[in-house]
Amino acid sequence: MRTKDSATASAPIADTGPGAGLWLAGIGVLIYSFTIPSTVFGLEGLDPYLIGVGRAAAASVLAAVVLLSVRARFPRRDQLAGFAVVVAGVVFGFPVLSTLALDHGASSAHSAVVVGLLPAVTAVFGVLRAGERPSRAFWLAGAAGAVCVTGFALVRGAGHVTAADLLLFGALVTCAAGYTEGARLARDMPGWRVISWALVLSAPITVPVTVWLLATTSPDWTGRATLGFAYVAAFSAYIGFFAWYEGLARAGIARASQVQLAQPVMTLLWSGILLGERIDATTALAAVGVLVCVALTQRTRVDRSPDGLRDGLRDARPSRTMEEGSVTRR
């Protein structure tokens, strides 16, 4: 019976096919589409750094409970560099920089359009890390998307890129790096375990900083501020990654990341409904332009070099298998 249980639990992640991965990625995107409006709610009473760092501190408590409940093994030494990138990108980089951008005056709709380039940047990180060789058309489409977003930022900034735009650009680059490394780690362990360990490993920084910010920033826990913070802590910082990392690992980083094309449109919708923001023609046109440009990157040819293929697909699935099997036997 133990052998049978172990075999059942250890099915390779690719056996379910890319279709399941795309559905999982879609669930993650739906969760993330509420992140920016929820952050705006939080800013009504909380310091931006408290939101950016505090959400990870709160999520680390949930992560620690989950890891202890399954007696998860500590990551291997060779995985720690990847976890460092995940922590830098999705625990600190995107949450802090995007929250600061909103605090600097960027609207939820404006932020959604700029961050709409995230799927393209994630795809670029994915092909670079997996040793793929994109065609010239891929790079041209990606560059067109960058021009579209930059043009939108210039129009909104009266001819110059604002501090909020720079913060948003930094947020999407760091986030893409964190997505890519998290997906690579998710080939070796379940996606929920990747984000759980990332949050726990960062807790020695996030928890003390959060306690200090609570004591020095005089937070006003209004109903909307509390609701917004609770959402980004429980869902944006943690639960969303359960589906997102698993989806990227199963369907492939470049392919699954394009599901996030729907996120700017959904965020624009939630911004109008929840925040009462007016979505003007310029914002809508820019959003459509980003969608088209990033979609074109996925219709172009991308080859894999033999070395990159070995590196990108060198999953330690046997170790993931052994770990899951051991948990089952317990």
Walk me through this protein's architecture.
The chain is mainly alpha-helical and 330 residues long. 77% of the residues lie in helices and 2% in strands. The protein has helices spanning 2-9, 17-32, 35-43, 48-70, 80-103, 108-114, 118-129, 136-156, 163-185, 191-216, 223-251, 253-257, 262-275, 281-297, 306-312, 317-329, and strands at residues 132-134, 302-304. The chain has a two-stranded antiparallel sheet. α3 (35-43) packs across α5. The protein is globular and about 45 Å long. The chain starts with a helix and ends with a helix. The relative contact order is 0.23. Residues 1-15 and 304-330 have low confidence and may be disordered.
Write the layout of secondary structure elements.
Elements lengths: L1 H8 L7 H16 L2 H9 L4 H23 L9 H24 L4 H7 L3 H12 L2 E3 L1 H21 L6 H23 L5 H26 L6 H29 L1 H5 L4 H14 L5 H17 L4 E3 L1 H7 L4 H13 L1
Antiparallel strand pairs: 1-2
Could you name the key traits of this structure?
single chain; 330 residues; mainly alpha; two-stranded antiparallel sheet; 16 helices; 2 strands
* Count of alpha and pi helical runs: 16
Mean pLDDT: 81
**Quaternary structure state of the chains depicted:** single chain
Q: How far apart are the termini? A: 13 Å
What structural class is derived from the secondary structure elements?
Answer: mainly alpha
Pattern of helices and strands: HHHHHHHEHHHHHHHEHH
Total beta strands:
2
Shape: globular
Strand content: under 5%
Looking across the biggest beta sheet, what order are the strands in? 1-2
Major sheet size, sense and barrel closure: 2 strands, antiparallel
Our Rg estimate from Cα atoms comes to 20 Å
Residues in helix, %: over 70%
User: Which stretches of 5+ consecutive residues score pLDDT under 50?
Assistant: 1-15, 304-330
